[in-house]
Design brief:
231 residues, binds zinc ion, four-stranded mixed β-sheet, 4 strands, single chain
Length: 231
């Protein structure tokens, strides 16, 4: 193989791996920037951030990297690291970006990978972000950085993580708040629990759809509602 072909093949492998392991293709932030983020978070009002989250921040085992991500503001990796968008590098100490980082820390610290990949896990993290944002910006509501979707945020905050109907509603609200967000890629409950739910009802279409949606989401395809709304 000539050099050009080897390079192209290398890039393809890298791109493929990068979809599952962002650390392969991300730009890792300098330790100086990570340090500033950690210091800023450590300086927050201690009364608002739970001990386990604070302890995680202080241990600072996580790393932050930038990665283009059209469908979400930030992300977590299976290695317990955090990704933000390159455009957010200009304001990484802003309340908005810090709230995204805390959202991801919440996923990593409090949830298993299965829970993170469910609407239940997302609802918990969005509600946490809603609760934490006023601590970052003098009591302001997070809707100020999401096109003032205050009503949607407030409704989202009141939804129950233990109701399928509420988790369905959460999908629609999240998309209203952040158009392009891939809420339909995720099962309502952690994957195996969701499969169990459909199997118990003999709903094999539901099983297949849940699997297909997760795969489509991983490939970056946009997914619309294809399951009927709960009765
Ligand atoms: Zn999330």
């Amino acid at each position: 193989m000539d050099e050009q072909k080897t390079k192209t093949a290398d890039r393809k492998v890298k791109d493929f791996l990068g979809r599952f392991i962002p650390e392969v293709t991300w730009n890792k932030l300098s330790s100086d920037i990570c340090e500033q983020v950690i210091e800023k978070l450590k300086g927050l009002d201690r009364t608002g951030i739970e001990d386990d989250i604070m302890a995680f921040i202080e241990k600072k085992k996580y790393k932050i990297g930038t990665l283009s991500q059209a469908n979400s503001g930030a992300g977590w990796t299976v290695f317990g690291n955090i990704t933000i968008r390159p455009e957010n590098l200009n304001d990484y100490l802003s309340p908005y970006v810090l709230s995204l980082i805390l959202h991801e820390i919440f996923h990593i610290k409090r949830q298993t990978v299965h829970t993170r990949l469910s609407m239940q896990g997302e609802l918990d993290a969005w509600q946490y972000q809603y609760r934490i944002y006023p601590l970052l910006n003098h009591g302001h509501e997070i809707s100020e950085v999401y096109g003032r979707k205050s009503q949607q945020w407030q409704e989202l905050f009141r939804l129950s993580r233990n109701s399928r109907e509420d988790l369905e509603r959460a999908r629609d609200l999240m998309i209203e708040i952040a158009p392009g967000y891939r809420a339909y890629a995720l099962p309502l409950y952690p994957f195996l629990q969701e499969i169990g739910y459909f199997l118990k009802r003999g709903d094999f279409k539901g099983v297949i759809e849940a699997m297909q949606n997760l795969a489509k989401g991983a490939r970056g395809e946009k997914i619309e509602r294809n399951t009927p709304r709960p009765a």
